[in-house]
Amino acid sequence: MAVADRDFVEFVETTSPSLRRTAYLVCGDRHRADDIVQDALYKLYLAWPRVRRVGSQFAYARRMVVNVAHDGGHRAR
What we know:
Structural class: mainly alpha
Radius of gyration: 12 Å
Mean pLDDT: 91
Number of strands: 0
Helix content: over 70%
């Protein structure tokens, strides 16, 4: 496993609970929140090399969660 992949796995393991809480606060549904976090983490993985270089990975991931929630039509009704 590459170093970047190990860093990403560690990041996901430590931040997933917080990202799920953020997604839940945005959408109001636990199952949708899980889907939102999964979509955001997929997009984050694709951008991970760039995000690692810039720093502030958690802030970037949290913003992605909010964006995915709003862009994906996962808003609370």
